[in-house]
Design goal:
Blueprint lengths: L1 E6 L6 E14 L2 H7 L4 E15 L4 E5 L6 E5 L5 E2 L1 E2 L5 E4 L13 E3 L24
Parallel strand pairs: 2-9
Antiparallel strand pairs: 1-2, 2-3, 3-8, 4-5, 5-6, 7-8
């Protein structure tokens, strides 16, 4: 099992864990699009994970959508998505919250039937190193 570290944008909440990657999914469902404000959520699932908050655990808030399985943990200060440890040794980690280099490619795009209508041919859009002049 590898060791990973991560944090939120404001760096007040930090974490570390060891675990084995079970999958790296780009989820295009409408719920993930809403919660990220983007075309998809990028989540890495780990099994046999041993997780520890290093700092800022009191800043972590969790939202569950009604009676669904949809849950999001985030930093109350900056809104960054944070990991969701579970009781069964599984762990969902937003890929962007990792500070440790992740040396794997996404396993798959999921929930493509509900992807945004503008989410097509994105690789063809112009690319800039920073915000372009308007």
């Amino acid at each position: 099992m590898e060791k990973y570290r991560g944090s939120c944008l404001c760096k007040q909440t930090t974490f570390e864990f060891t675990g084995t990657v079970a999958g790296f999914y780009l989820c295009h469902c409408s719920r993930c699009r809403k919660q990220t404000g983007s075309a998809h959520a990028s989540n890495v699932f780990f099994k046999e994970a041993i997780f520890n908050w290093l700092s800022g655990e009191e800043n972590v808030s969790t939202f569950q959508l009604g009676e669904t399985r949809f849950i999001k943990s985030f930093c109350k200060n900056c809104g960054s998505a944070l990991p969701r440890p579970s009781q069964n040794g599984r762990l969902l980690v937003p890929a962007g919250s990792l500070d440790t280099k992740l040396d794997i490619k996404p396993t798959a795009h999921i929930f493509m039937a509900s992807k945004a209508q503008w989410d097509c041919h994105l690789e063809e859009a112009p690319k800039y190193e920073q915000l372009p002049d308007s």
